[in-house]
Amino acid sequence: MSHDEPLIEVIKPGLATSVQDRGRQGYYHLGIPPSGALDQYALAAANLLVGNPEDAAVLECTLMGPELRFTRAAVIAVTGATMTPKIDGQAQACNTALAVPAGARLSFDFVQAGARACLAIAGGIDVPEVLGSRSTYTLGAIGGFEGRRLQAGDRLRVGAPRPGTRVGRALPAALASECPKEQVLRVVPGLYDHRLMPESAASFYEDAWSVTSEADRIGYRYKKGRALKFQPREQPFGAGADPSNIVDACYPIGSIQVPAGVEPIILHRDAVSGGGYAMIGTVISADLDKVGQMQPNQQARFERVTLETALQARKDYRARLERLRAALG
Protein backbone atom coordinates (compact mmCIF):
# COMPACT_ATOMS: atom_id res chain seq x y z
CA MET A 1 0.00 0.00 0.00
CA SER A 2 1.44 3.43 -0.93
CA HIS A 3 1.76 6.37 1.43
CA ASP A 4 -0.92 8.10 -0.65
CA GLU A 5 -3.46 5.61 0.69
CA PRO A 6 -5.22 6.32 4.01
CA LEU A 7 -3.35 4.86 6.97
CA ILE A 8 -5.85 5.65 9.74
CA GLU A 9 -9.55 4.78 9.87
CA VAL A 10 -11.53 6.50 12.61
CA ILE A 11 -13.72 3.97 14.42
CA LYS A 12 -14.67 6.30 17.28
CA PRO A 13 -13.66 9.96 17.22
CA GLY A 14 -13.24 10.57 20.94
CA LEU A 15 -14.61 13.68 22.62
CA ALA A 16 -12.95 16.43 20.58
CA THR A 17 -10.12 15.02 18.47
CA SER A 18 -8.65 17.33 15.84
CA VAL A 19 -5.58 17.73 13.65
CA GLN A 20 -3.17 20.32 15.06
CA ASP A 21 0.37 21.46 14.47
CA ARG A 22 2.28 24.50 15.74
CA GLY A 23 -0.40 26.81 14.35
CA ARG A 24 -0.70 29.52 11.71
CA GLN A 25 0.95 32.86 12.34
CA GLY A 26 0.48 36.26 10.80
CA TYR A 27 -3.30 36.35 10.30
CA TYR A 28 -4.64 37.35 13.70
CA HIS A 29 -5.11 40.94 12.55
CA LEU A 30 -7.54 39.52 9.98
CA GLY A 31 -9.50 37.68 12.67
CA ILE A 32 -7.90 34.27 12.02
CA PRO A 33 -6.36 32.97 15.26
CA PRO A 34 -3.20 30.82 15.38
CA SER A 35 -4.98 27.60 16.45
CA GLY A 36 -2.44 24.77 16.87
CA ALA A 37 -1.89 22.38 19.78
CA LEU A 38 -2.86 23.86 23.14
CA ASP A 39 0.19 22.14 24.66
CA GLN A 40 2.97 23.16 22.31
CA TYR A 41 5.65 21.40 24.34
CA ALA A 42 3.77 18.08 24.16
CA LEU A 43 3.43 18.59 20.38
CA ALA A 44 7.20 18.93 20.00
CA ALA A 45 7.90 15.96 22.28
CA ALA A 46 5.50 13.61 20.46
CA ASN A 47 6.91 14.50 17.06
CA LEU A 48 10.55 14.17 18.11
CA LEU A 49 9.85 10.74 19.61
CA VAL A 50 8.72 9.40 16.23
CA GLY A 51 11.36 11.21 14.17
CA ASN A 52 9.11 13.93 12.76
CA PRO A 53 9.89 17.64 12.50
CA GLU A 54 8.66 19.01 15.80
CA ASP A 55 5.94 21.07 14.12
CA ALA A 56 4.41 18.18 12.13
CA ALA A 57 0.64 17.68 12.35
CA VAL A 58 -0.64 15.39 15.13
CA LEU A 59 -3.99 14.42 16.57
CA GLU A 60 -4.91 16.42 19.68
CA CYS A 61 -7.09 14.19 21.89
CA THR A 62 -9.21 15.93 24.53
CA LEU A 63 -10.22 14.11 27.75
CA MET A 64 -11.39 11.01 25.84
CA GLY A 65 -9.19 9.53 23.13
CA PRO A 66 -10.34 8.13 19.79
CA GLU A 67 -10.36 4.54 18.55
CA LEU A 68 -8.40 4.16 15.34
CA ARG A 69 -7.59 1.31 12.95
CA PHE A 70 -4.22 1.34 11.19
CA THR A 71 -4.32 -0.12 7.68
CA ARG A 72 -0.52 -0.51 7.63
CA ALA A 73 2.27 -0.60 10.19
CA ALA A 74 3.19 2.67 11.87
CA VAL A 75 5.19 4.19 14.71
CA ILE A 76 3.33 6.42 17.15
CA ALA A 77 3.89 8.33 20.40
CA VAL A 78 1.47 9.85 22.94
CA THR A 79 2.55 12.81 25.07
CA GLY A 80 0.93 15.50 27.18
CA ALA A 81 -2.03 14.24 29.22
CA THR A 82 -1.66 10.79 30.77
CA MET A 83 -4.06 8.91 28.51
CA THR A 84 -2.73 5.34 28.27
CA PRO A 85 -2.68 4.08 24.66
CA LYS A 86 -3.80 0.50 24.01
CA ILE A 87 -2.83 -1.49 20.90
CA ASP A 88 -5.40 -4.23 20.29
CA GLY A 89 -6.43 -3.85 23.93
CA GLN A 90 -2.92 -4.10 25.39
CA ALA A 91 -1.81 -1.11 27.48
CA GLN A 92 1.31 0.69 26.29
CA ALA A 93 3.55 3.42 27.69
CA CYS A 94 3.02 7.11 27.14
CA ASN A 95 6.03 9.22 26.13
CA THR A 96 7.49 6.30 24.13
CA ALA A 97 7.78 5.47 20.43
CA LEU A 98 5.47 2.48 19.85
CA ALA A 99 5.10 0.09 16.92
CA VAL A 100 1.54 -0.41 15.66
CA PRO A 101 1.15 -3.48 13.38
CA ALA A 102 -0.89 -3.35 10.19
CA GLY A 103 -4.56 -3.96 10.95
CA ALA A 104 -4.21 -3.10 14.66
CA ARG A 105 -6.62 -0.94 16.61
CA LEU A 106 -5.42 1.90 18.81
CA SER A 107 -7.63 3.00 21.68
CA PHE A 108 -7.11 4.92 24.92
CA ASP A 109 -7.80 4.44 28.61
CA PHE A 110 -9.54 7.13 30.64
CA VAL A 111 -7.45 10.26 31.14
CA GLN A 112 -5.56 10.10 34.44
CA ALA A 113 -3.86 13.51 34.44
CA GLY A 114 -4.12 16.54 32.18
CA ALA A 115 -6.71 17.20 29.51
CA ARG A 116 -5.04 16.94 26.10
CA ALA A 117 -2.77 14.28 24.64
CA CYS A 118 -0.81 14.67 21.42
CA LEU A 119 -0.79 11.55 19.23
CA ALA A 120 2.03 11.73 16.70
CA ILE A 121 2.44 9.25 13.84
CA ALA A 122 5.79 8.90 12.07
CA GLY A 123 5.41 10.88 8.84
CA GLY A 124 2.85 13.33 10.28
CA ILE A 125 -0.86 13.66 9.54
CA ASP A 126 -1.12 14.59 5.86
CA VAL A 127 -3.90 17.11 5.33
CA PRO A 128 -3.70 20.21 3.11
CA GLU A 129 -1.99 23.29 4.52
CA VAL A 130 -4.26 26.32 4.88
CA LEU A 131 -2.45 29.63 5.35
CA GLY A 132 0.73 27.79 6.17
CA SER A 133 -0.66 25.35 8.75
CA ARG A 134 -2.50 22.05 8.97
CA SER A 135 -4.16 23.06 12.26
CA THR A 136 -7.93 22.88 12.63
CA TYR A 137 -9.85 26.10 13.33
CA THR A 138 -13.36 24.80 13.79
CA LEU A 139 -15.13 28.17 14.15
CA GLY A 140 -13.82 29.18 10.72
CA ALA A 141 -14.08 25.63 9.32
CA ILE A 142 -10.54 25.83 7.95
CA GLY A 143 -7.51 23.58 8.16
CA GLY A 144 -7.23 20.11 9.63
CA PHE A 145 -9.50 17.40 8.27
CA GLU A 146 -12.27 19.23 6.39
CA GLY A 147 -12.10 22.09 8.90
CA ARG A 148 -13.67 20.11 11.75
CA ARG A 149 -13.13 17.61 14.53
CA LEU A 150 -12.79 13.98 13.53
CA GLN A 151 -15.89 11.84 13.00
CA ALA A 152 -16.43 8.10 12.78
CA GLY A 153 -15.64 6.89 9.26
CA ASP A 154 -12.96 9.49 8.51
CA ARG A 155 -9.83 8.17 6.79
CA LEU A 156 -6.55 10.01 7.35
CA ARG A 157 -3.40 9.93 5.26
CA VAL A 158 0.06 10.07 6.81
CA GLY A 159 3.28 11.27 5.21
CA ALA A 160 6.36 9.14 4.62
CA PRO A 161 8.34 8.51 7.82
CA ARG A 162 11.90 9.72 8.05
CA PRO A 163 14.59 7.03 7.87
CA GLY A 164 15.81 5.69 11.21
CA THR A 165 12.60 6.08 13.22
CA ARG A 166 13.39 4.09 16.36
CA VAL A 167 10.75 2.10 18.26
CA GLY A 168 11.27 2.19 22.02
CA ARG A 169 12.76 5.67 22.19
CA ALA A 170 11.45 7.17 25.43
CA LEU A 171 11.15 10.67 26.81
CA PRO A 172 13.32 11.19 29.93
CA ALA A 173 11.04 11.54 32.97
CA ALA A 174 12.43 15.00 33.76
CA LEU A 175 11.32 16.21 30.32
CA ALA A 176 7.76 14.81 30.37
CA SER A 177 4.78 17.16 30.59
CA GLU A 178 3.58 17.91 34.11
CA CYS A 179 -0.20 18.00 34.63
CA PRO A 180 -0.92 18.70 38.33
CA LYS A 181 -4.52 19.11 39.49
CA GLU A 182 -3.76 22.62 40.74
CA GLN A 183 -1.87 25.21 38.71
CA VAL A 184 -0.28 28.57 39.36
CA LEU A 185 -0.71 30.74 36.28
CA ARG A 186 1.52 33.79 36.01
CA VAL A 187 -0.14 36.96 34.77
CA VAL A 188 1.16 40.28 33.51
CA PRO A 189 -1.46 42.93 34.46
CA GLY A 190 -3.39 44.17 31.46
CA LEU A 191 -4.22 47.51 29.90
CA TYR A 192 -7.49 47.64 31.82
CA ASP A 193 -6.62 46.27 35.26
CA HIS A 194 -7.01 49.84 36.56
CA ARG A 195 -10.73 49.47 35.84
CA LEU A 196 -11.07 47.03 38.77
CA MET A 197 -11.90 48.26 42.24
CA PRO A 198 -8.79 47.89 44.45
CA GLU A 199 -10.33 45.12 46.57
CA SER A 200 -11.25 43.17 43.41
CA ALA A 201 -7.80 43.65 41.92
CA ALA A 202 -6.45 42.02 45.09
CA SER A 203 -9.03 39.23 45.38
CA PHE A 204 -8.47 38.11 41.79
CA TYR A 205 -4.95 37.05 42.76
CA GLU A 206 -5.90 35.81 46.24
CA ASP A 207 -8.74 33.45 45.30
CA ALA A 208 -8.63 29.93 43.89
CA TRP A 209 -10.56 29.64 40.62
CA SER A 210 -12.09 26.41 39.26
CA VAL A 211 -12.27 25.45 35.59
CA THR A 212 -15.86 25.26 34.33
CA SER A 213 -17.23 22.64 31.95
CA GLU A 214 -17.38 25.29 29.18
CA ALA A 215 -13.58 25.50 28.95
CA ASP A 216 -12.40 24.80 25.40
CA ARG A 217 -9.87 25.80 22.75
CA ILE A 218 -11.45 29.25 22.40
CA GLY A 219 -11.35 30.17 26.06
CA TYR A 220 -10.91 28.67 29.52
CA ARG A 221 -13.65 29.87 31.88
CA TYR A 222 -13.18 29.86 35.65
CA LYS A 223 -15.62 30.19 38.56
CA LYS A 224 -15.94 30.16 42.38
CA GLY A 225 -13.75 33.15 43.11
CA ARG A 226 -15.26 36.35 44.45
CA ALA A 227 -17.13 38.46 41.92
CA LEU A 228 -14.97 41.28 40.60
CA LYS A 229 -16.24 44.84 40.74
CA PHE A 230 -15.25 47.47 38.22
CA GLN A 231 -14.81 51.16 38.88
CA PRO A 232 -17.95 53.21 38.25
CA ARG A 233 -17.68 55.14 35.04
CA GLU A 234 -19.66 57.06 32.47
CA GLN A 235 -20.44 54.72 29.59
CA PRO A 236 -18.13 55.63 26.67
CA PHE A 237 -19.59 55.97 23.21
CA GLY A 238 -19.20 52.62 21.46
CA ALA A 239 -18.94 50.56 24.65
CA GLY A 240 -21.56 48.28 26.20
CA ALA A 241 -23.48 49.22 29.32
CA ASP A 242 -21.86 46.67 31.64
CA PRO A 243 -18.94 48.11 33.65
CA SER A 244 -16.69 45.36 32.22
CA ASN A 245 -17.30 46.64 28.68
CA ILE A 246 -14.87 48.83 26.78
CA VAL A 247 -14.71 50.29 23.32
CA ASP A 248 -13.58 47.32 21.21
CA ALA A 249 -9.87 46.52 21.46
CA CYS A 250 -7.48 43.80 20.30
CA TYR A 251 -7.09 40.64 22.42
CA PRO A 252 -3.73 38.90 22.78
CA ILE A 253 -3.74 35.11 23.21
CA GLY A 254 -3.76 34.45 26.95
CA SER A 255 -5.64 37.65 27.81
CA ILE A 256 -8.12 37.49 30.68
CA GLN A 257 -11.55 39.08 30.49
CA VAL A 258 -14.27 38.96 33.12
CA PRO A 259 -17.73 39.59 31.59
CA ALA A 260 -19.94 41.23 34.22
CA GLY A 261 -17.14 40.60 36.72
CA VAL A 262 -18.33 37.04 37.38
CA GLU A 263 -16.23 34.37 35.60
CA PRO A 264 -12.73 35.08 34.27
CA ILE A 265 -12.02 33.72 30.77
CA ILE A 266 -8.51 33.06 29.48
CA LEU A 267 -8.58 33.40 25.70
CA HIS A 268 -6.64 30.58 24.04
CA ARG A 269 -5.45 29.57 20.59
CA ASP A 270 -8.85 29.58 18.80
CA ALA A 271 -10.02 32.88 20.32
CA VAL A 272 -11.40 35.87 18.46
CA SER A 273 -8.89 38.68 17.96
CA GLY A 274 -10.79 41.52 19.60
CA GLY A 275 -13.94 42.66 21.33
CA GLY A 276 -15.54 44.79 23.98
CA TYR A 277 -14.45 43.33 27.33
CA ALA A 278 -11.72 44.80 29.52
CA MET A 279 -8.56 42.69 29.66
CA ILE A 280 -7.37 42.70 33.25
CA GLY A 281 -4.21 40.71 32.50
CA THR A 282 -2.52 38.19 30.21
CA VAL A 283 -1.28 34.73 31.13
CA ILE A 284 2.38 34.62 30.12
CA SER A 285 3.30 32.55 27.06
CA ALA A 286 5.36 30.07 29.12
CA ASP A 287 2.23 29.08 31.10
CA LEU A 288 -0.27 28.69 28.24
CA ASP A 289 0.49 24.96 27.90
CA LYS A 290 -0.57 24.56 31.56
CA VAL A 291 -3.96 26.13 30.83
CA GLY A 292 -4.70 23.65 28.04
CA GLN A 293 -3.98 20.72 30.38
CA MET A 294 -6.54 21.73 33.03
CA GLN A 295 -9.65 19.58 33.46
CA PRO A 296 -13.07 20.88 34.55
CA ASN A 297 -13.23 21.55 38.32
CA GLN A 298 -9.46 21.73 38.70
CA GLN A 299 -8.17 24.86 40.38
CA ALA A 300 -5.82 27.64 39.39
CA ARG A 301 -4.40 30.59 41.25
CA PHE A 302 -3.19 33.64 39.40
CA GLU A 303 0.15 35.21 40.26
CA ARG A 304 0.94 38.79 39.29
CA VAL A 305 4.39 39.05 37.65
CA THR A 306 6.44 41.69 35.90
CA LEU A 307 7.29 41.75 32.21
CA GLU A 308 10.90 40.94 33.16
CA THR A 309 9.73 37.78 34.93
CA ALA A 310 7.62 36.83 31.90
CA LEU A 311 10.60 37.24 29.57
CA GLN A 312 12.80 35.12 31.83
CA ALA A 313 10.08 32.43 31.94
CA ARG A 314 10.03 32.42 28.14
CA LYS A 315 13.82 31.92 28.12
CA ASP A 316 13.45 29.03 30.59
CA TYR A 317 10.72 27.46 28.43
CA ARG A 318 12.92 27.67 25.35
CA ALA A 319 15.84 26.19 27.27
CA ARG A 320 13.67 23.21 28.23
CA LEU A 321 12.78 22.74 24.57
CA GLU A 322 16.49 22.73 23.74
CA ARG A 323 17.04 19.99 26.33
CA LEU A 324 14.20 18.04 24.72
CA ARG A 325 15.80 18.37 21.29
CA ALA A 326 19.17 17.32 22.67
CA ALA A 327 17.63 14.23 24.27
CA LEU A 328 15.58 13.16 21.23
CA GLY A 329 17.25 14.86 18.28
TrEMBL record:
<keyword id="KW-0547">Nucleotide-binding</keyword>
<protein>
    <submittedName>
        <fullName>5-oxoprolinase subunit C</fullName>
        <ecNumber>3.5.2.9</ecNumber>
    </submittedName>
</protein>
<dbReference type="GO" id="GO:0016740">
    <property type="term" value="F:transferase activity"/>
</dbReference>
<dbReference type="InterPro" id="IPR029000">
    <property type="entry name" value="Cyclophilin-like_dom_sf"/>
</dbReference>
<dbReference type="GO" id="GO:0017168">
    <property type="term" value="F:5-oxoprolinase (ATP-hydrolyzing) activity"/>
</dbReference>
<dbReference type="InterPro" id="IPR003778">
    <property type="entry name" value="CT_A_B"/>
</dbReference>
<feature type="domain" description="Carboxyltransferase">
    <location>
        <begin position="29"/>
        <end position="321"/>
    </location>
</feature>
<dbReference type="InterPro" id="IPR052708">
    <property type="entry name" value="PxpC"/>
</dbReference>
<dbReference type="GO" id="GO:0005524">
    <property type="term" value="F:ATP binding"/>
</dbReference>
<keyword id="KW-0378">Hydrolase</keyword>
<dbReference type="Pfam" id="PF02626">
    <property type="entry name" value="CT_A_B"/>
</dbReference>
<keyword id="KW-0808">Transferase</keyword>
<keyword id="KW-0067">ATP-binding</keyword>
